[in-house]
C-alpha cells in the first residue's frame, strides 16, 4: 500500500471509532494499520472491513505492528501518558486527543519528555483550531483591522452531560476547549481565573454545579468569559465574540436553513458536537496526515496541552474556593514557539 | 380645545376604530370631533369616552359637525368616491384609506375633481411609506450608493384571507401595497404586468387562486416581482429586496427576540399587519395631523391612488388572460409632482 | 386647552429639549405649560413656538406656574433631589430622569420622603422598560415557557464618551441601565458585584478604564454579566441574552436594512441611543401622560431609583477594590410593590 | 497502490486542476492515474508531484493508460460527447462535469447510448446536490412537514462574468445549476419557461443582457423563479427559498463571522463559487469515489444532464422571443429512476 501513512489507533470507543472511520473513508493519504483497545471485541468491530489492519488489546503491541508509522491516541485520558511515552520511545509521530494528560503534573512530565527528545512528535487534538469559523475569526484578529482584542465572550452549551460528569469536569473537560481556543486566538497565556455560578439549573443532575460562568485574565491584558452549560437541553451551541479596539467579530450564529412555519421563523440547532464540528475533525486529521507524510509536526503542541491542564486546574480551585486563582506555568521550553497550526 | 385639529372619522369598523383610538390616544395635536357610520351603534361605541365628539350615521352630517376641520375616510372602498367629493366641496383636508376608489374609472374622476380644485386636499393611506424599514430602504436607494435599481423582489404573506376574498383581490387589495411601494421606492411608473400562479395551496379556500406571482415592468427599465400568498398559515411577512447595479438591500427579516429552545433557534413571526405596521400607522397619522395643522398636504397623492387602481386592474386582466398586459395611464395633471412624503 | 395635561419641564438641555419636543409634538394628551432652566436663553429657545408656555430660571417658579399639573425632571442629577422634594410638597405627579439622585444616601432620603406621603407620585425614567424588544423579552421570561432564568449576558456599547466621563461613570451612568433592566426582567434584587477589566482600549481617553466587565449576583440565584464599553467607536449597541433552564432568548441583533455591496453583507449600526431607543422614549412619556391623566402612577418606582443607586455604588467600590462587594439595601417600604409598569 | 481507485482526469484547466488536487490530496480511496489535456504543458503541470501518473494530450490515450479504472471529465463542454462515448466503449465509470453536453440533441445521443448499454456508468457534476445547505433543504421538503412546495425563489449572483460570456450563457451555463437544483429539490420536471429582463446593469459588459429573471413552471404545479446576475460586483451569492403549503425554508444567508466595525455590522460575502461550494465539491468527488469502488453509480444521471440541456434551450428561446416557451422532453428511458444521490 506504498505511500499511504500507516496509523495505529489506540482506543476504539466513541471517538476512536469515529477517527478510524475518518482515516479509512474520509481523509486522503492514510490507512489504519493497527487498532488497540483493552476490549478486544470493540477493537475488532471498529476494524471490520479494513484491509491489512491488525487488532490488539495492548497499546504497545499496536505501536509495534507491521506498517505502523504514526499513532492516533483516542483512549481514555488516564491512558495517554503511558501511550505518549511509548510513542516517544519509538520516535513515532502522534496525534493525541484532548486532554493530553488529565493532570498538570503528568502533563509537565510529557512536556519534559518531548523537550528532552529535542524535537516535536506530538499534535494535541484541539480541533476547534480547524473549524472554518474559528479560523476566519483568528485570521481577522491576526490581520489587525479590528485592533487589539480586549475581551472574548464565549458560550458553550451541551444538551446534556454524560453519566458521572462532575462539577470540575465542566471546567477541565468542557471549558478546556475555550481555554485552548482563547490562548490560540489571542496568542496570549491565561494568568488568572474566577468562577461564578448561579443556582444550578433544575435540568442538571442533582449535585452538579451547572451552569458556571468562568472569567479568565491574560498576560496581554485581555479578559475571556465563558458560559458553560452542559445540561441546557435545547441544543449544542458554541459561540465566540471577540471585542477589539475598533470592532467586534462573532461566530456561532449560523442558521443553516431558515424555516418559517406555525408562527415562528428559525433554524434547527445541532444536538451534538460531532455534527457541529464534523468538518473540523476532518480537517484536523487531514492536516495531521499531510504534515506527517512530509515529516513535519504542526498544530497544537504539548505546551498547549500542558497549559490547558494548568489553567483548568486553577479553574477548579477557583470554583471550589470562590476566589480569583492565579495560573502558574512552568518555564516554556525553547522547543515550543507560540505559533499555531 | 383650541389648537387641536378637529377630525371627522368616516367609518367605525376595524380600521376606523383603530384610527379613532390613534387620534384620541396616540398622536399629538388632533382630536376626534365627529364619527360617522351607517351602523349607529358601532359609531357610538367607537366614540365612547371621547370628549366633545358627535356621532352620525351620514358622512355629510359628520363633515358639517361643529369643530370639524379635516376628514379621515376609513369607510368601505365603494363609499370613498362620494366622501372624497363631499370633502372637496367643503375644502376639507382629507386622509383617505386605500383603496382610494376601487375602480380606475372612479379614481380618474377623483383625480380630475381635485385637479379642478387646483390644489391638493388629499393624502392616500399607503402607510408603508411611513414604515421605518421602507424609509431606510428608500433613503438608501435615493442616496445613490448602490447605483440604479434593477429589480425589486417582494414577498407579501398573510396567515389567512377574510371571508369573501377573491382571486382578483390578491392583486387589487393585497398587491396594491407593493404597487405603491414599488412606484415610491423607484420613483417610476409600472408599465406592464404578468401573473403566474402555481397550483393553489390546499390551505386556501376552495376556488381561490392563492398564491400568485406577479411580475411588473417599469418605465425606468426595472423589474418588480411579488409573491402574494394570503393563506400561508404561518405568519404575516412582508419583505422587499432591491437589487441594484452595485449592491442589494433587503428589509423584512428582523428577528425581534431570538429564542433558542427545544432544538430550534428562532423568532416569532407577527400574525397581523396591525402588529407589523403599528408604528407606520402611528407615524402616518401623526405626519398627516402635523402637515394639516400647518396648512400643508404631503404624502401619497390622488395620482398615486389612481395609478395603483390602474395597475391593479391591469394585473387582474393579466391573471385572467395569462398574458402580459400593458398599463395605460391618463396624462398626469401638473398638480401632482413625483415627490413622495 | 381643557383636558390636556399641563407639564412643567425642568431642564432644557439635550434631554430636556428632546422631551419638550416629545410632549409638544409626539405624544397625545399633554402640553408643555412651563419650562425652567438656569440658562434663561436655553429655556426660551426650547419653549419656542409652544402656545401658552411660561419660561423660568427657577424650578420652583415653574412648578407654581399657571396650568402646571405634573412635572418632568430632566435637569442634571445633582438638582433632582431638591426638585423631587418640591414636587412632593405640591403633590405633583413627576417623571424623573435617571439617575433619580446620584448618591444612594440622597436616594434614600427621597425614598423616605415619598413613603411618608403614603402614596406614589414618582415614575423614574428607566426607559428600557418601554422598549419593544425588552418588553417582549420580559413577557417571554414571565410566561415561564423557558423556565427559571439562570444568567443574563448584557452588552452596552457607545461610540464615544462625553468629555469629563470618569471610570466610575461607566458604572453609575451607563451600567445603571442594565442594573434596572436586570432587576426588572428577573424580578430580583442584585446582591453582590464584581468588576474585572482588560487593559483599557487605546480608543478611550487617557486614564479612563474602558471597557469594564461587571458581574452581578442576585437574590434569586441568577448571574448578570455586563460588558460596558463607552468608546468602542463602531456604534451604539445594546444586547441582552437571558439563559434559562429550558432555552435562551436574545434581543439587540436586529438588522434593519441588510445591505450587500462591495464584498460584504451587513446593516448599519445606530450611532446614538436617541436613535436606538426613540420609540421607547415616546412610549415611556405617552404611558406617563396616560396614567397621570387617569390619576395613576405606574412605571419604575423610587425604590427602583434607590436600588439602582445602591447597586451602582457597590459596583464602583468593586471596581476600586478589585473584590466582590455585597450590596446593602435599606428595608423596602410597603408602598413599593415589585411589579413593573 | 492496491485498492486505490485509479482515475483518468480529462482536462487540466481551472476545474480539472482543482479536481486533480482534490483526488490527490483531499478525498480518500482514489489516485490520479492519468491526466490528459491538448496543452501538454498544462497537463504536466497539473500532474506534478503525483506518483505513478501518466500524462497525455489525447483523451483516449489517457483512458487506455495503465491503472485507469474510472474517468473524470473536466474538459470544455464541446469535448464531452466524444469523451463520454469513449468511456462507454471501455465500460469505464465516469464523472462528467456540467454541462453534460452543450446542446440537447447531443445530450439525447448520450442518453440513448447509455440506455443501449443497459446500465448506468455516468454521474453528472451537479455539485449543489452535495452542498450541506441544499441537502438539508431537500431533506426538509422530503419529510413533508412543510407540505407541498408551491414556489422556489432562487438568487444566483456572480461578481463578474468571464470574457466571451453571452446573454444565452446566463441561462445555459449559470441558470443550469438552478434548473438541476429545482428538478432535484421538487422531484418534478420543468415544463415551461418565461424570461424577463430589466435594462442591463451598467456594470455588465456592453451588449450582455445581465441581469435576467427566469420563471419556470413544473409538471407538479409549482413555480420556480431565478434572478441571475453575473456581473453584480459585490460577491458570489446563491440563495434558495422554498415556499410550501405550511411554511417556507431558506438557505444561503449564512453569515460566517459577523463583524461590527465603523458603524456597520455584517459579514464578508464569498467572491467565488470554489469558495462557497468547496465542501460540496469535496463531498461530490468523495461520494463518486466511494460508489465507484463499490461498483455502484449514484448521483445525477444522464437523464438529469439531458433535461437540463433541454430546459436551458427553451430558456434561451424564451429570452429571444419574449414569450413563454414550453419544454419538450424525449421519453424517459426506464434506466433512469427519479431518485437523487
TrEMBL record, chains A, B, C, D:
Domain of life where this protein originates: Bacteria
This protein's record includes keyword Protease: no
Statement: the UniProt record of this protein carries the keyword Cell cycle: no
EC number: 1.1.1.18
Domain Gfo/Idh/MocA-like oxidoreductase N-terminal: 6-122
Keywords linked to the UniProt accession: NAD, Oxidoreductase
Domain Gfo/Idh/MocA-like oxidoreductase C-terminal: 138-328
Reaction equation(s) it catalyzes: myo-inositol + NAD(+) = scyllo-inosose + NADH + H(+)
InterPro entries: Gfo-Idh-MocA_inositol_DH, Gfo/Idh/MocA-like_OxRdtase_C, Gfo/Idh/MocA-like_OxRdtase_N, MI/DCI_dehydrogenase, NAD(P)-bd_dom_sf
GO molecular function terms listed in the Swiss-Prot or TrEMBL record: inositol 2-dehydrogenase (NAD+) activity
Protein's job: Involved in the oxidation of myo-inositol (MI) to 2-keto-myo-inositol (2KMI or 2-inosose).
Family recorded in the similarity comment: Belongs to the Gfo/Idh/MocA family.
Subunit structure: Homotetramer.
Name assigned to this protein: Inositol 2-dehydrogenase
Amino acid at each position: 500500500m506504498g505511500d499511504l501513512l500507516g496509523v495505529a489507533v489506540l482506543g476504539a470507543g466513541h471517538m476512536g471509532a469515529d477517527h478510524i472511520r475518518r482515516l479509512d473513508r474520509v481523509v486522503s493519504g492514510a490507512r489504519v494499520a493497527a487498532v488497540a483497545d483493552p476490549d478486544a471485541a470493540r477493537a475488532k468491530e471498529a476494524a471490520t472491513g479494513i484491509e491489512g489492519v491488525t487488532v490488539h488489546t495492548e497499546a504497545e503491541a499496536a505501536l509495534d505492528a507491521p506498517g505502523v508509522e504514526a499513532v492516533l491516541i483516542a483512549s481514555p485520558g488516564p491512558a495517554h501518558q503511558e501511550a505518549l511515552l511509548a510513542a516517544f520511545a519509538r520516535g513515532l509521530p502522534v496525534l493525541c486527543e484532548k486532554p493530553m494528560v488529565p493532570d498538570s503534573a503528568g502533563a509537565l512530565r510529557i512536556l519534559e519528555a518531548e523537550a528532552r527528545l529535542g524535537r516535536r512528535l506530538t499534535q494535541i487534538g484541539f480541533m476547534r483550531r480547524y473549524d472554518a469559523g474559528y479560523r476566519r475569526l483568528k485570521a481577522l484578529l491576526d490581520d489587525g483591522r479590528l485592533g487589539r482584542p480586549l475581551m472574548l465572550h464565549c458560550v458553550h452549551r451541551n444538551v446534556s452531560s454524560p453519566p458521572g460528569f462532575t462539577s470540575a469536569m465542566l471546567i477541565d473537560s468542557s471549558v478546556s476547549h475555550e481555554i485552548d481556543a482563547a490562548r490560540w486566538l489571542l496568542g496570549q497565556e491565561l494568568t488568572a481565573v474566577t468562577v461564578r455560578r448561579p443556582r444550578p439549573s433544575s435540568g442538571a443532575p442533582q449535585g452538579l454545579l451547572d451552569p458556571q460562568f468562568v472569567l479568565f485574565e491574560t498576560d496581554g491584558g485581555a479578559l475571556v468569559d465563558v458560559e458553560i452549560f452542559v445540561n441546557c437541553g435545547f441544543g449544542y451551541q458554541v459561540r465566540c465574540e471577540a471585542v477589539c479596539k475598533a470592532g467586534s467579530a462573532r461566530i456561532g450564529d449560523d442558521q443553516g436553513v431558515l424555516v418559517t412555519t406555525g408562527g415562528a421563523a428559525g433554524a434547527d440547532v445541532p444536538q451534538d458536537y460531532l455534527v457541529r464540528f464534523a468538518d473540523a475533525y476532518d480537517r484536523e486529521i487531514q492536516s495531521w496526515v499531510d504534515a506527517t507524510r512530509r515529516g513535519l509536526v504542526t498544530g497544537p503542541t504539548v505546551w498547549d496541552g500542558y497549559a490547558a491542564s494548568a489553567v483548568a486546574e486553577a479553574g477548579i480551585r477557583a470554583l471550589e474556593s470562590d476566589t480569583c486563582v492565579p495560573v502558574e506555568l512552568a518555564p516554556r521550553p525553547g522547543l515550543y514557539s507560540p505559533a499555531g497550526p
